[in-house]
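HUMAN:
Just now I want nothing more than another pair of eyes on a protein record. I would be glad if you read both lines and explained how they fit together. I have put the entry right below:
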Amino acid sequence: MMSYYIGIDVGTGGVRGALVSHDGKLLKSYTHPLHIWQPCCNYYEQSTTDIWNGVCTCVKNVTKDVDATKVKGIGFDATCSLVVLDSNGAALTVSPSGTFVVSYTLTRGQHGYNSYDTFYSGSDERNVIMWLDHRAEKQMQEINSTKHPILRYVGHKISLEMSLTKVLWLKQNLSEKCWNKAGHFMELPDFLTWKATGSTARSAGCVGPKWLYQTNSWDESFLREIGLEELIDDNFAKIGSVVLLPGDAVCDTGLNKMAADQLGLLEHTPVATGIIDAHAGGVGCIGCTVFNSPDVNVPLINRMVLISGTSTCHMVVSDKEVPINGVWGPNYSAMISGMWNHEAGQSASGKLIDHLIETHAAYQKLIDRSKTTGRHIHSELEEILDDLTKKQALNDVSLLTRNFHMWPDYHGNRSPISDSTLTGMISGLSLSCDLNDLAVLYLAAIQALAYGTRHIIETYTDSGYDIRVIYACGGLSKNQLYIQIHSDITGLPIVLPDEKESVLLGSAILASIAAHEYPTMQVAMDTMCGDGHVVRPNRSVRSFHDNKYKVFRLMLENQQQYRNIMRDDQ
């Protein structure tokens, strides 16, 4: 009898759901946009009411006309965003009131309020601080100033994208409306499994990387030193006294009746322990096989997964605990049970490319051209780049940026510098602002992100990793120019799975393990990750990119020098 699994991915801008067969074939998918509120600069908030409604919509759509008895399990992944609930499970606001509000849906071309008007600034419905929210700069500095030994598990510097910084912000800034009433602080994946089952168990894939839960325990001395001693009370009830591994069933009873009715599934359907979206992409991608290519079918410890979407994550696994400065981890069983995981990343990748395109003077011309041809704006820009390459008689498109350079950290540097205050830089601007200039800017942004990936790989290599191949997934992995340039700049082959939705597949794989379809994660990945093909580097542009990479690294030094000069002026 055919059996199915449901994978749910809650990303930055929307919920996606997929119906996946027992052998890893994605049969149906559905996407539902999510609302985001920005009460002021660097604040980004969402609503679990909106998110759960999106989850229910997706599940009902992908299981339409499917016999519910054949749905054997459901798995959830989500962004590493902070959810706050009171002791009864009701939403608690994370939003300061009386502030300017920008309200929008992250679907290109759609802006709206409508039913969301009641989710005003300061209302309890706004109970999620998103991963890209940077309000907790002061709290991050306070935590890092302790130099507590446990910080070695986050590269010796906690990031303000991590939840402990945001929890401390809530204590210091929203005590009456939130902190004093809070009963549960959860990562978004853990909220989803709680909503589905009623279990407050947490995932090691969430509390390890984002909350510094290490060696199967919370560190009381650390929580006390950073001023969050209240989280120790009642056996850590507010942050999780039970922690499970990816692939574990959240509880023996599976979906509770309320969630089953809302989702249109059977009560007691197994629910897998949740996982962070990038980690789900790793699970769904890293086990891919390429026939007749022994150079890429290497052990897992020699693979790096590149998960590229709004932001980018660079995931590696090891059988050893190896702290690395400026890189999150090592975290045990955060992605693959039984292995240590490191997670480097870029805070803005797809978001950076969108920002550069949408704020350029030629953006409307690009939109008009796209409407005429019916093609994606990236395809239009790449056609312009091809034409420029031919007109200038160049042997590779990358050569168009010989005198145009970019440092891409418009939203700070996550890895390997681990400095949220770094900003973007461009060298080579002119008075021209036509479509050709926009196309070159687009190319330079992709190159800059790839140089950042090379910087991260060099950091991994210096720490003992031997990365021989990149496995890529996520939205930007569908961009051929992005992938080819990453291969050219890193000098490594890149494997692209035939199943493009690796994140959804990863959550479905976890569901299959929770339902006991497969005995281990490795067996499940071997069976469900499927096949792929290889993109190989163009060696003819290696010296060009080597020189551009020198400029890239010099731009970092220059920015740091500029800051030191101005600091001396104070």
About this structure: The mean pLDDT is 94.
